[in-house]
Amino acid sequence: MPEIVHKTDVEAEKPQLQRPPMYHVVMLNDDYTPMDFVIDVLVRFFHKSEETANKLMLQIHHQGSAMCGLFPRDVAETKIHQVETASRTSGHPLRCVMEREN
Ligand code: TYC
């Protein structure tokens, strides 16, 4: 039988100010992934416009990496898995990492 657990007054009245930690998905440059493939990934998995995706891809190409989105941890992990699965399936080494905000 499920047991009803009453919160103490202190727990019940504590304002819920904590937000879940958020994580940037950072896409990394490499020497082999085609530029058009990177643009397609940014459009498909990060919902960027073609124009924004093109600029982001060039930023990664020239600077080594760029932040592509900010998500709760499970969503960031899923994005990285989607990118890396699509990339390996197409024979490309494209990688992403996640960085905790703050
Ligand atoms: N540097 C790659 C090339 O010259 C293009 C590229 C851009 C690869 C961004 C990965 O995240 C990346 N074909």
Automatic annotation (TrEMBL):
In terms of superkingdom, the source organism counts as: Bacteria
The protein's name is ATP-dependent Clp protease adapter protein ClpS
What keywords were assigned to this record? Hydrolase, Protease
Q: InterPro entries, per this entry?
A: ClpS, ClpS_core, Ribosomal_bL12_C/ClpS-like
Does Chloroplast count among this protein's keywords? no
What is the recorded function of this protein according to its Swiss-Prot or TrEMBL entry? Answer: Involved in the modulation of the specificity of the ClpAP-mediated ATP-dependent protein degradation.
Q: Please give one Gene Ontology molecular function term for this protein.
A: peptidase activity
Q: Which family does it belong to?
A: Belongs to the ClpS family.
Give any single GO term for biological process.
Answer: proteolysis
Assembly and partners? Binds to the N-terminal domain of the chaperone ClpA.
Q: Where is the Adaptor protein ClpS core domain?
A: 19-96
